Amino acid sequence: MVRLDITQEELLSVLSNLDAETLFQKLESVKPPKAEAQHKESKSIKKKCDKWYFGWTIDRRTGKPIISRDTRLRPNLSKLIGYFASIHNINHTTVQVTRNHPPGLDGLHSDFRDFCPQDLISVGSFTGGESWTHRFEENLGTKTSTHNNFVQMNGHLPHTVCPYEGIRWGLAYYDVAAAESVNDVELGLLASAGFAAITSEEALRRAGAAGMQVKMVSPGRFGHIKNKNK
Predict the structure, then answer these.
(1) d(Cα 58, Cα 46) in Å, to the nearest integer?
(2) Which one of 76, 117, 148, 196 is most buried, counting C-beta atoms within 10 A?
(3) Sequence ranges of the domains in the chain
């Protein structure tokens, strides 16, 4: 029988010695999001590669952060993925999880809604699959290995996954809102899901250090400043 989540006993048994290989094994033990091979006729990345979102997502009706559907369906896996980031001093409200994300130009995109840098890591049994980011200043790309290794990235820049062979799980940790946008109860619900919200001040500090141009549009919410030359 295909299962949606790991058990609480499994979660507790691995927390004391959690590494990238253990995370990979637990991800492989549940029904994965659909891979791009199942959507060959589609030209949309979203349809080519289904995604899980753990932690917060933004409610389209209210514009406020809420606990995601995937978090509610897979609470133990959510806590495992959130805890994995925290032991590497990575703190974000949200993570996007994919299995065998389309590589090359098929996966090229930018995340202009980001208001501070992402932290990326990939786990699995694969070769290749580096993160590729286009840098306008040099007019060239930068290739960085994320295999069992956290890498910080400015999501405003076009980026994709280099070609690879094997099974590659990608985890992109990022933020959808800062702590000031919600009350203490909602912050507690996020923490119980395995994630944490940073302050607006910390978000702006991280953005500035990464060269991202963002502005605050409301308490805990941000927008990006477009550069017309790029």
Answers:
(1) 17
(2) 117
(3) 25-224
